[in-house]
Write the structure tokens for this entry.
Amino acid sequence: MSVYKIRYGTPEDLVPTNFARKSLISYKSLSENEVEEISFKKTKKGCLLEIPLRAGNEVYGFGLQLKGFRQTNLKKTIRPNADPISNTGDSHAPVPFFVTTDGWGIYVDSARYVEFNCGYTKVTSASDNSKVELKTDFESLYAKRESAYTTVLTIDVPFAEGVDIYVFKGESILDAVCEYNLFSGGGCDASLWGLGNLYRCHSEFTEDQVLAMAEKFRKLKIPCDILGLEPGWQSCSYSSSFCWDQERFPNKEDVLRQITDMGFKLNLWEQAFVHPSSPLYDALVSYSGDYKVWNGLVPDFATKGAQEIFINHHVPFNTLGVSGYKLDECDGSDYTGQWTFPLCAEFPSGLDGDQYHSLFGTLFARTMLQVFGENKTFSEVRNLGALAAPYPFVLYSDLYDHRDFIRGVANAGFSGLLWSPEVRHAKSREDLIRRVQTVVFSVQSLINAFYLDDMPWIEKECTDEIKRLLELRMSLVPYLYSAFYDYKTKGKPPVRALVCDYSRDKNTYNIWDEYLFGDDMIVAPMTEKEKEREVYLPVGTWYNFFTGEKIEGGNKFTVKTDDIPVFVKEGTILPLARPVQYITRDTQFEITLNLYGDTSNTQTKLIEDDGCTYHSPVRVLKIDADTDDLDSFRYRITNKKKII
Ligand code: GAL
């Protein structure tokens, strides 16, 4: 692996690396003259880089792209937006970082709306003059055409007279992504309980209704670790007062204690905009931008002042059992009036509106993380950007197309992001089951019932099915926690597209609707409308997770099942836990080791720590097919199952 920083011209002062964690890897600095392949010039708009792109070298990334996957030959403008409607680059979490199947990754250190053209033909580049067949039918006329010649990838940075880029080179996309994440400060350190199930209650619930929901989960024995309170916990939420509503929560200390005594963690919805009735308002005026949103201040989280005011106000909530936040609205919608600040806004840190728009969610998350001090969280946010891997905040969306949500699962891992294809209402029983199947095989198992009076499966009469899926999620927690350990220490995304690991296998280049879940499982979710689907598994032997059926990879095949199609790689030792209702510091998981095929040379690992604080000692427990006893307070091997 090699990592280089290359400086072109004179970069701006305020760029994402100023606010980032310390890199966990070293890199070599080069001057622009030392890199012949890349050309740079200043333009009327800002500055421009051109990088050759070999035909067949495919491009991915640019953050959480819900509308597109393979970005070769396409144009992407990196612009945060709550309502991305097409594959233009608009996103809840756009990131100026891309990767290619040749194992290159390039990060552009800019908080501007950078425009990338991923393979355009320069007049000077060698082109071929073979004739192109005339297409007349609509589909082939407008189909994406492959280019057979070397093109250039342009990086157009507005306003700036120069820019630093960081180049990561490995054998595969995965190598480049890992290096980018380590450069960002490593993948996040998620709490163990955060990997359980999260249920968000109706916005208008009173404390008694939240308590009743908590009791219902325990009575029905449906596993749930976290209850989320939506806007109604606050006296004013659009914009936020950050204070409890006394009418809905008159006895909050008492009621919330009853809820946390049942093993739940609490998570509070907030957006950053500060309402004039908030006790934070006066002190924040001088640390905010010069335009309001929803009549609220827009705090400048690049200033120490705004950070401290937020942190000090929120720390006392910790004693109520608040262990996470959902940081809403920081992406900004352009289609709904006044939902974000104009780009001409100015901020006291010196950031302008464009720059703050790109950094808002990341700086907000970074600030709120400090509220918990030594305690780990696993929270939510609706905007992130460059270098965000170290923040344990998962992205979500108000959009709801199931296929777009699945594409998000595959895409997020290219850019140091975590994404949950959350479940809300459903059109039908099938729709609900299919959506819950997807979410339990994602980084965060989230049911966002913020406008539902009851658990959505009650009305759809599929409580047993959903309960089994949420239990399955609990079985997967130890395996997923190990994947998160690799994220933290190696930068390896816990969930990622097939092309990351199989960058030489062309069959994976367009697969956006399957993904790796940890190192050893491939998940191919189905949506309500599909009665069957095609699945591709890379060359090698695989096993159907539910039936044990053995499958030879390398070809597509058709799957017809009510389960979610999930496949396990030959040689895997898969530790599955007996589901618990919720996870505590003392939980001991009873583990069944599932041995797939020939596991004589395989090792796997389980991570033992307290699961909830950053500096707890960590033990990496090595496990092979012969391991029977583990000297561990967290795990006990109770069973072994051979799948052959
Ligand atoms: C939206 C958010 C939803 C829900 C809602 C509450 O902005 O995306 O998940 O929290 O606000 O009003």
Q: What stands out?
A: The chain has a mean pLDDT of 96. The chain has twelve helices and 33 strands. The two ends are 37 Å apart (CA to CA). The longest strand covers residues 2-10.
